[in-house]
Write a structure and sequence with these properties.
By secondary structure, this protein is of the alpha/beta class. It has 22 helices and 30 strands. It has 3 domains: 1-52, no CATH class; 57-356 and 436-529, ANL, N-terminal domain (Rossmann fold); 545-677, ANL, C-terminal domain (GMP Synthetase, Chain A, domain 3, 2-Layer Sandwich). Bound molecules: 5'-O-[(S)-ethoxy(hydroxy)phosphoryl]adenosine. Residues 288, 333-335, 410-413, 435-440, 464, 525-527, 539, 542, 548, 553 line the site of 5'-O-[(S)-ethoxy(hydroxy)phosphoryl]adenosine.
C-alpha cells in the first residue's frame, strides 16, 4: 500500500519560494521525462488503496477538540493513576494530565512483561565493526532494574540530574530508562561534544553523576570519552560520581570519584520498584542551540511527552508488531530520545541501533544494516541521503532492500530530487515517504503524512504535508496575521500540544521570551514556511540565527562567542552557506586583533579552537578575515549581507526591508567592498 505521489506535472506548481530555496534546476527536467511515467507505474503497481476521507475527518475533529483527542491517546499509556484534568493551560505554561501518575520505564518495559513481546528482540544493536548484540524486552527489563538499583546505591534520588555521555551502545538506553525508573532527570550529551560543552551542561543542570565509557568507536578510531570527562570534572562542583562502562578497553585513569559499571551492578537486586511520578515530572533535559550564545536546557515532562510519542509513532509510522524499525539518529539528539528510545519501546517494536557512521568502513552501511537485519522502516536525514547519492546507485542496488515498507526523513528540508531518489532507488517505488517536521522543543513529530490513519493522502516531494492530528499550526506574517496560500511567513503552533517543552531549565523568562512573546498566544518555531493551495506545508529554513549543519542545530551566537574567546579574534560574525551535502555549512567573518596577522596557520588554529570548544560538528567550512564587520548605523551586524557574501551571490538582492534606515547605496558599497576584501 502506498500514498499517491503528486508531482509538479500533476497540476501542482511548486510555490515560487520553494523553487528559490531548492534552486531552479530541481527535478523539473526529470519530471517532464520518462521518469515521471515510471513513477506512476510504480505507484500503480504498489496498489493504491482508497479509503475515503477518514484522515480529513479525524484531523478536523482532533483539532477542534484537541484535548479530547489527546486524552484518548493518553489512555494508551500505562498509568498508576489517571489524571484529573487533561490540560491546565496557564499561558505559556501547560500541564498535561495533571493529577495523573506514571513511570516512563514501566511504559517501555514492564508493560511488555505480560505480553507476547516479552521475549521479543527490543534492540538489535549493530557495531561499527560488524559486532552484533540482540537484547530482548525481558533482558532489557533486567538490565534496567539492576542498573536502577545501582544508581540508587550510589545515592541518586528522584529529582536528581544525571548526565549520560555514552557512545551509541545499548547501555545508553539502559541508563536512560534506569534514570526514568527512579525519577532522576537524564541529560544525554552527544558523545561528539567537547569537555567544555559537557561541563557547561553538567554545571547548568547541577548534575550529580556522569555516566560514560572508557572510549567509543568512531570511524575506526577510539574516542577517549573518559579522558574528556576527566578534563571536564575539574570544573563541575556538583559532581559526586562518574560511572564508567568498559567499551573500548583503552587505557584510562580511575580516580576516587570513578566506579566501573560492571562492578556496581554485580550484587544488585534484580527488581527495582518504579517511582510513582507525576505526569509533569521532568523526564529529561536536552540542551540545544538557540539564538543566544548559550545552549538552552529544554525540559520535557513524562505524561505529555510519552503521549505525544505513543500517538505519533502509531499515526506516522503505523507501527505493527512485526516491524523492525531503523532510526539512524544518535541518542544524543532529540530524534534519538523520541524515536530510538521512548516511542518504539513503548510499542514493543524491534529496533535497530547502529553505532557507526553511514560511510565507514564502507560507503554502504545503512543498506548493509537494512539487509542484514531486515529493517521494515528506515528513518534518516536528508544529509545522509545526499551523501549516499554521491556514492552512486550501484551500492544500494547491490543490497536486498525488499524488507522496507516505509521510509522517513527528519531534521532539514529534503530536496525534491533527493526525495525522488529515496523513493525510487531505496524504496523501489513501494514505500511511502514520511517527511517529518519537528523540533527538540516539540518533543515529537508535528508535521507529517500519517500512514497510520490513511494511506491515500498524496505525497508531495519536499513538503512535510500537514500537522498531525491534534496539532494546530499556522503561518503568519510580521503582525501575526495568517498569510494567504503560497505566501512565506513564520511557522507557529496555535494551541498547546502534549509533547511541548515545559520550560527552559531554570529559565522561565527565556522560555516565555523566545517562544511565546513574538505573537501572543502562539508558539514561535523559528522556522519560515508556506502553505500551498492544497494545505500542504513547505519548510523554508530558519527565520532566526540558528544554523542547521548536517541536520544538527548550531547557533551563530554560540559560534561567535567561541571565536571571540580566542585571543587573536576581536570580533566575529557567523552565517550559513547552502551546502550540497550538509544542507548548510558554517562561514565565519573574523576581525583580528592588530598584533595577529591573517595567516593560513591562524585559520587552522581557530578551526581547532572551535573543534575543541564545541566539538567536530561545529568546524567552519570557511573563515574570512576582514578589516571590519558590516554594521548598520545603530551597530547591528548586517547578517543578510554576510549571508549573500558567504553564498557567493553577485548582489545582495532584495533591499526593501533594510533595518535601521541604512541607505541602499551604503549597503551596496559595503557589500562590494567586503567582497573585494575576501580571499578564499
Ligand atoms: C529543522 C530535529 C524541514 C527545522 C527533530 C526545525 C526540518 C529544526 C524538518 C529543529 C523537516 C526539522 N523539514 N526542516 N522535516 N525537521 N527541521 O531541534 O528548522 O534538532 O526548527 O530537531 O530542524 O531541529 P532539532
Amino acid at each position: 500500500m502506498i500514498s499517491r505521489v503528486l508531482t509538479y506535472s500533476d497540476k501542482i506548481n511548486l510555490p515560487p519560494n520553494v523553487l528559490k530555496l531548492f534552486g531552479s534546476n530541481i527535478i523539473m527536467s526529470d519530471l517532464k521525462s520518462n521518469k515521471v511515467s515510471k513513477l506512476y507505474e510504480d505507484i500503480k503497481r504498489a496498489k493504491i488503496s482508497l479509503q475515503g476521507k477518514k484522515y480529513d475527518i479525524l484531523r478536523k475533529n482532533a483539532v477542534e477538540d484537541s484535548e479530547q483527542f489527546w486524552e484518548q491517546q493518553a489512555k494508551n499509556l500505562v498509568w498508576f493513576k489517571y489524571w484529573d484534568r487533561t490540560l491546565t493551560w496557564d499561558p505559556p505554561f501547560a500541564k498535561w494530565f495533571a493529577g495523573g501518575s506514571l513511570n516512563a520505564s514501566v511504559n517501555c518495559i514492564d508493560r511488555h512483561m505480560d505480553s507476547q513481546f516479552k521475549n521479543k528482540a527490543a534492540i538489535i544493536w549493530q557495531g561499527e565493526n560488524e559486532e552484533t548484540r540482540t537484547i530482548t524486552y525481558y533482558q532489557l527489563f533486567k538490565h534496567v532494574n539492576i542498573f536502577a538499583n545501582a544508581l540508587k546505591s550510589l545515592g541518586v534520588k528522584k529529582g536528581d540530574r544525571v548526565i549520560i555521555y555514552l557512545p551509541m551502545v545499548p547501555e545508553v538506553v539502559i541508563a536512560m530508562l534506569a534514570c526514568a525508573r527512579i525519577g532522576a532527570t537524564h541529560i544525554v550529551v552527544f558523545s561528539g561534544f567537547s569537555a567544555k560543552a559537557l561541563a557547561d551542561r553538567a554545571n547548568d543542570s547541577e548534575s550529580k553523576v556522569i555516566i560514560t565509557a572508557d572510549g567509543g568507536y568512531r570511524r575506526g578510531k577510539i574516542i577517549e570519552l573518559k579522558k574528556i570527562v576527566d578534563e571536564s570534572t575539574l570544573s563541575i562542583p556538583s559532581l559526586e560520581k562518574v560511572i564508567v562502562l568498559k567499551r573500548a578497553s583503552n587505557d584510562i585513569k580511575m580516580t576516587n570519584m570513578d566506579v566501573w559499571w560492571h562492578e556496581i551492578v554485580q550484587n544488585e537486586q534484580q527488581y527495582c520498584k518504579p517511582e510513582i511520578l507525576a505526569s509533569t515530572h521532568p523526564l529529561f533535559i536536552l540542551y540545544t542551540s538557540g539564538t543566544t550564545g548559550k545552549p538552552k536546557g529544554v525540559l520535557h515532562s513524562t505524561g505529555g511527552y510519552l503521549t505525544h510519542l505513543y500517538a505519533t509513532t502509531k499515526l506516522v509510522f503505523d507501527f505493527r508488531s512485526t516491524d523492525i524499525f531503523f532510526c539512524t539518529a544518535d541518542v544524543g539528539w532529540i530524534t534519538g530520545h523520541s524515536y530510538v528510545v521512548y516511542g518504539p519501546l513503548m510499542h514493543g517494536i524491534t529496533e535497530i541501533m547502529y553505532e557507526g557512521t553511514p560511510d565507514y568502513p564502507t560507503t554502504d552501511r545503512y543498506w548493509a544494516v537494512v539487509e542484514k537485519h531486515g529493517a521494515t522502516i528506515l528513518y534518516t536525514t536528508p544529509t545522509a541521503l545526499r551523501m549516499y547519492i554521491k556514492f552512486g546507485d550501484n551500492t544500494p542496488k547491490s543490497f536486498d532492500l525488499s524488507s522496507l515498507r516505509l521510509l522517513g526523513t527528519v531534521g532539514e528540508p529534503i530536496n525534491p530530487d533527493v526525495w525522488q531518489w529515496y523513493f525510487e532507488t531505496i524504496g523501489k517505488g513501494n514505500c511511502p515517504i514520511v517527511d517529518t517536521w519537528w523540533q527538540t522543543e516539540t518533543g515529537g513529530i508535528m508535521l507529517s503524512t500519517c500512514t497510520g490513519i490513511d494511506d491515500t493522502i498524496p505525497m508531495k516531494p519536499g513538503s512535510a504535508s500537514f500537522p498531525v492530528p491534534g496539532v494546530d499550526m499556522a503561518i503568519v506574517d510580521e503582525h501575526g496575521e495568517v498569510v494567504d496560500a503560497n505566501k512565506k511567513g513564520y511557522l507557529m503552533v496555535k494551541k498547546p500540544w502534549p509533547g511541548m517543552l515545559m520550560t527552559l531549565w531554570r529559565n522561565d523568562n527565556a522560555y516565555q521570551d523566545l517562544y511565546w512573546n513574538k505573537f501572543k498566544g502562539m508558539y514561535y518555531t523559528g522556522d519560515y514556511a508556506l502553505m500551498d493551495e492544497d494545505g500542504y506545508f513547505w519548510l523554508l529554513g530558519r527565520s532566526d540565527d540558528v544554523l542547521k549543519v548536517a541536520g544538527h542545530r548550531l547557533s551563530s551566537m554560540e559560534l561567535e562567542s567561541t571565536f571571540v574567546s580566542h585571543k587573536a579574534v576581536a570580533e566575529a560574525a557567523v552565517t550559513g552557506r547552502l551546502d550540497q551535502k550538509k544542507g548548510e555549512s558554517i562561514i565565519a567573518f573574523l576581525v583580528l586583533r592588530s598584533d595577529y596577522p591573517p595567516t593560513e596557520e591562524l585559520r587552522k588554529v581557530l578551526t581547532d579552537h572551535v573543534r575543541k570548544t564545541i566539538g567536530p560538528i561545529a568546524v567552519p567550512e570557511g573563515i574570512y578575515f576582514v578589516s571590519k564587520l558590516p554594521k548598520t548605523r545603530s551597530g547591528k551586524i548586517m547578517r543578510r549581507l554576510l549571508k549573500s557574501i558567504a553564498n557567493r551571490e553577485d548582489s545582495i538582492g532584495d533591499l526593501t526591508t533594510l533595518e535601521d534606515n541604512t541607505s541602499v547605496d551604503e549597503v551596496k558599497h559595503v557589500f562590494n567592498q567586503l567582497k573585494n576584501e575576501i580571499v578564499e
